[in-house]
Structures are given as C-alpha cells and as structure tokens.
Amino acid sequence: MKLADAVARYVEHKQSMGMRFHTERRTLKSFCQWLGETDLAQIEPDPVRAFLAGTGPVTRFWQRKHEVLAGFYRFAVARGYVTNSPLPRTVPKPSQHFVPYIFSLAELKRLLDATESCEHSRGAMTAATCRTLLLLLYGTGLRISEALSLTLADVDLDRAFLVVRESKFYKTRLLPIGPDLQGILSQYLARRPGDRAADSRFIVSRTGTAVSRAAAEGTFCRLRQHANVLRHDDARYQPRLHDIRHTFAVHRLVSWYRAGADVQRLLPHLATYLGHVNIAATQRYLTLTPELLGEASERFERYAMGGHHD
To answer: 47 and 178, same structural domain?
Structure first.
C-alpha cells in the first residue's frame, strides 16, 4: 500500500470519530511530501528520523511530529498495512523549555504605532485592520484562528459580546467585551471594506476578503521588526502573534493582584474566557514575569505577616 493511501485512510478514520484532525493532517501531508511516492512497507528508519529532526535543535515540535506518526503507525500495524514501525524508540528531550514572550505595555504601544506602516506596503491588511486585530487579540485573549473566523453575525456590538463558534475543543462560547474594545470594533466596522452579509468575516483584507492566518502572521512579523520588538534571550523564536494571548492572561492576573481580587477564585473564570477545558491549561499560559512575580510575592508576604488573604 502506498503511504499516501494509508494516510488518507487514517485521516478519514479519525475524522469519522468526530475529530477535526487538521494539524495532524498537515503533519502527515508533510511526511508524505518528504518521502514521496513510496510504499508504506518500504519506509526505513533513517528518512523518518530525518523528517523528525528537521533543522535546528530538538524542540516540542519534534515531539508533536513523533506523536502524530506514532498514532499513524499504530493504526497501520493494527490493520496489517505494515508489521512494525520505523519510528525511533527513544524520544529525546527538547534542548530547552519554550517560554512564550510577554509583551510589555510599551511594546504593545510600539506595535500599534507601527501599524501605520501597513498603509505604505503591499500587504493584504490595512493599518486599520492591523490595529483592530491587535487590539481584539489583546482585549479578548482569542486564538488567532478564532479572531479571524469571527463573522459579522458573531460580533454583537449592541450587546457588547462576541460569539466564538466551535473553537479548538468544539465548544461555542460567548465573550463579553469592555466599552473601549466595543468602541474600537464599532469604528472598524464603520470603515470596514467588503459586503455586509451576516456570514462575512469581520476582519477582512484591503479587498474585503477573509484574512488567512499566514497573512496575519506575516504582517505581524513585519510590524514586530518595524517596532523593534525583539527577544534578546537564547529562544529559538522571536515574539509571535500568538504570544498576545499569553500576554492577555498574564496582564489580567497582574491587574487582579493589584486590585486585591481573589485570584484563585477568578482563575476558573479566566480559563472559561480563554476557552480552556481546565485550569491546568490556563496555568501553562501564566508565564512568570518580574511584574507578575512581584505582585504574587507581595500578596504572599502580606499573608505570611498575618494580613488578610485576599
């Protein structure tokens, strides 16, 4: 059996069980492209290891690719397509734990100021669209795919909430938004190009068409360089558009500490707002920054010295 045929059967099997399987399908498609037109039974360990290795140090991405291929080969072996798996038995540890970048308020302002550069480029997004997308992500903590998937019907500006439909975990949720973001989205809507059909995307390109994730991330990369927002540690990646979601979570926690709120009680609400299935997923977003650590330490010091545990 050809590799591509076995992959197609595996993807169809997973999706028939109700799984989206989009990311895994892309990984398997890359695997097919890497090996070309070949029989599944003829695949040797060396090209598989080369596919997993990619370039650069071992990262979490290596492990994700390994997990996808491991699931595929379990499926193939169970159905007799092959007798064994060519995957390496030892899974190396990543060279370093990936730490998301948390933007400072000054950096966010520089990014917003840099959106004016979109008017002088050949990019798909106008300055108003770039600015609105950044503020939407920072004001709600949406995943970039969720923000770009919003339709006009999903943005209820009269009642100040967004409808996020069937996101990562097949759940639809309502997100209330504050008056500042409500005003920003209203201003964008008034100038937004394109048609006004209810199922049209809210965030659109210069020509009124949907904005792809690749286009949004490419635009952000140029904005980041223009605004001189860079990592100066040894991290493999520069600040990403998705890091705005992490920044939203950390900044929200800092503001709760400063307001004297009961953070432990509010964490489940933050998890629900972010669309996480549990608090543990939210806690992974809460990268310790000097600002957050300082607020938490001050809260603990007051508690340890006999003050109120608020």
So the answer is: no
